[in-house]
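ESCALATION

Customer reports they have been waiting on this structure for their group meeting. Please prioritize. Original submission:
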Amino acid sequence: MADRRNMTTRDMVVCMAVLVGALLFVVGAYGGFSFAPGGAKDAPPPATDVTTGFTRAGPALNIPVVVPKRIPSDWEANSFLLKTPENYGKDVVPLVRGGWLTGSGNYITVIQSGASPADVLGQEIGNGLNSTVSITEAGVNWEVYPGVRNEVAWVRQANGVTFVITGSAAEPDFVALAVAVTTI
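Update from on-call: job pushed to the front of the queue and completed.
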């Protein structure tokens, strides 16, 4: 075993180089850094087929899932999630969630579930037991709850389905999505 008193500066530099090399290899292997000498490039947002997702989600959740209709043409569907106990664990509240980037670049999402509003809000937002206001859009009453960050959540229940609309979008976008999921 080497005596620490016999280690030279050169030995320390070699040890540090080996450690830094190993660290760079691990970080690089997991995509932890990137090199873009021309600067970051604007990439298009990820796209997904929200309509097909909602269409297929009903049987998996055993609820009458509403496929949003008449979504504004400048919105880009970019996220979809089907959460069930089979794929997320037995304690998860089953739901389907689809999201869009609005024409102004903000995000809006609609969640549908057969669970109670309190259960859905508790899982997805972490709060929401105190509604701040009620509004009526397209003849349907929505309760407005505080959301995450500076967002709000519009919530209603119809035909055994809890609907939650949330995101960073402006109120006219919330109205458009509320109309899109309203079946009268």
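Sent to customer with the following note: The chain has one domain: 50-180.
Escalation resolved.
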